[in-house]
Amino acid sequence: MGKESYLPLFETEAAKGRMAYMVYAVSVMMGICLICVYRLIHFPSPSQGRLQRWAWMGSFMAELWFTLYWLITQSVRFNPIYRFTFKHRLSQRYEKVLPKVDIFVCTADHTVEPPLMVINTVFSVMAYDYPPEKLSVYLSDDGGSELMFYALLEASRFAKYWLPFCKKFKIEPRSPAAYFETVCKALDDPTMAEEWSSVKKLYEDMKKRIVSTTKVGQIPEEIRKEHKGFQEWDLVSSKHDHPSIIQILIDGRRECSRGVDIEEKEEEEEEAMPTLVYLAREKRPQYHHNFKAGALNSLVELAGFDANGGPLYIGTGCFHRREALSGMKYKKDYKTDWMVKNDRKVEESTHVLEETCKVLASCSYEENTQWGKEMGLKYGCPVEDVITGLAIQCRGWRSVYFNPERKGFLGVGPTTLLQALVQNKRWSEGDFQIFLSKYCPFVYGHGKIPLQLQISYCCYLLWAPCSLATLYYVTVPSLCINRGISLFPKLSSPWVLPFAYVILAKYGYSLGEFLWCGGTFQAWWNDQRMWLFKRTTSYFFGFTDNIFEVFGFSKSGFVVTAKVAEEDISLRYEKEVMEYGAPSPMFNILATLSLANLFSFVGALKMVIMDSKTRVLDLLALQTMLCGLVVLVNLPVYEGLFFRKDKGRMPTSIVYQSVVIAILAHIAALLPP
User: Fold this and answer.
1) Which of 186, 263, 302, 602 would you label with 558, given CA atoms 20 to 30 Å apart?
2) Do the bridges between strand 258-259 and strand 10-14 make them parallel or antiparallel, or are there none, so unpaired?
3) Which residue, among 290, 474, 470, 245, has the nearest Cα to 387 in the 3D structure?
């Protein structure tokens, strides 16, 4: 063990092909420079008309923005690295002194995040390959639903069968729902087959009870008598007005971890299990609850009592040092003695500990403190993760990105187009809000984090303003076709080459990278479609909401993204059919843009066919190709507008409105300036 104890726990390797990528990036930059030169030396003269001059200037400004944003994205691509870990060395060296780990699972509404789905997430983290006595799992239920508590109570009982099963047979994946969906029958091993059948039956029985209770919407009286925790809901007025609810369902401090019921009866000895805690923080109408950031801070406070600088902190799937979240600044001589931390013990009984911890989840606990400011997650921003991560890095802590072959975290995303657009609207709004605030990386991070890291934040913070350039580029050039106004070089001109090279190189590299990472051409094409949809809707609304907020016309909010859908919607999702069934202003924009480009594309084809000397084709070739590309991207939108008969088609009101607006836009484009 002498020399082995000094072997590294991980190694870092630089990505291959960096020089080739730099050559590609430089060549694209040269093409962009030539495009800028073309815009400047071919600027329309006054004799060509005011409309063409303004349209040309707008195109140039949009291209300058695309150039700036492209340069920003390159800051995170010039020096990619990969990390490889050696888990066996970690076990050999530190198994007896591994730190205690608290894992937070957050939910806010049992109607959009069903209890069965949430507890499957809980099972997967409880089954981590980590000493169970050092693992604590906290479920924060910001909806304060006793249905969620009931599901977690059922989970605490099933866990004593599921966790040993996972450990004994090295089960993957460790979410029961995902595992039994993947492995649909018992395997050849007779011993495993017998246990597999037994555990699957227990899971199906639990699933049936949870689903049936959730459908009814209330807990039967006989079930309420099974656990003292249900008594807490006797004091609940609504999900926005209730006291703190804390229930320790599995107390991992005990040598043989056991469930805790109303009478705390002794059970047979079982192997150690992680601590499992349910938390619904106190909510009162007169207190602002600070959305997800407030829920996470309650967990940090509770768990703290109980037990290039690097990438950005975005969303979930990450681990933090408790000291970093508690506001501590990093010092070069910082060193944690895990042995001392692990020896700290809380001797109170489970009931006493639950009552003691309630104050930590109360509305008044954070009053006149630094929580939400310098401690925990920061308040006042829809993307609490990004702003908190920036603050942590500015205090000297370094973050590390690690993407193992076996994914450490798997999430559930929206299953409908509208859900995805609403989620991206909130993200883009919050990101741009940070950029416009005192927490702008160039201001808040000046002298604290490297310039390259400051720039890399802008890849996300500038999503919202990207909408303006994109909207211009997919609207004005197509409308200019109607008047025969050319905004790009002639097909016969050598100036067409830099435009063609930049487009082909950028999207060719994007496709190649996508395929190299294991994707397919269809998935890449869908990704390009969503890129356009998000920029023209989500990011645009995120931008306008920020402007309204700056002038005091509105305030930012937090919308929980639905993770499930009705059965017919789910079936269409599985068939990769887009969902447009719900009316939304975002769909108005998508439909209107798609129709405006379709009308322009048809008009351009008509002009080309009627022009025997091909002068129109030479003059408007690139413009027509751009318009045609937008039409191609929007094929599912046309299908939803005119051809589909299912409930997922575009609402009739949106069809009429978009047709009228698109026609009016074309009439306006034909009017004399």
Assistant:
1) 302
2) unpaired
3) 290
Residue 572 and residue 613 in contact, taking contact as beta carbons nearer than 8 Å: no
Cα gap 475→478, rounded to integer Å:
6
49: Cα separation from own chain's centroid = 46
| Largest separation between any pair of C-alpha atoms in the chain | 94
| Cα 396 from Cα 414, distance rounded (Å) | 35
Low-confidence residues of the chain: pLDDT under 70: 1-6, 185-187, 254-270, 301-310, 337-347, 408-411, 556-565, 613, 673
At 13 the pLDDT is 86
Residue 38, classed as helix, strand or coil, is helix
Q: Comparing C-alpha atoms, which of 452, 337, 416 is closest to residue 581?
A: 416
Residues 6+ apart with CB under 8 A from 618: 490, 491, 492
**Nearest-10 Cα torsion for 49, 50, 55, 60:** 100
The alpha-carbon radius of gyration of the chain (Å, integer) is: 29
Residue 202 is encoded by which pair of tokens?
């227990």
Question: What confidence score (pLDDT) does residue 263 get?
Answer: 42
- Give me the pLDDT at residue 141, please: 92
CB within 8 Å of 21: residues ≥ 6 apart:
77, 78
Q: Could you give the CA distance from residue 462 to residue 68 in angstroms, rounded to a whole number?
A: 11
Asked if 459 contacts 312 with a C-beta cutoff of 8 angstroms, the reply is no
- Residues sharing a CB contact under 8 Å with residue 526, sequence separation 6 or more, in sequence order: 576
Extract the tokens encoding 163. Answer: 């966790």
pLDDT at 306: 44
Q: What is the pLDDT of residues 304-322, one digit of tens each?
A: 644 466 677 777 778 888 8
Residues pairing with 10 in the sheet: 85
Residue 44 DSSP one-character state? P
CA torsion 383-542-281-246 (nearest 10°) is -60
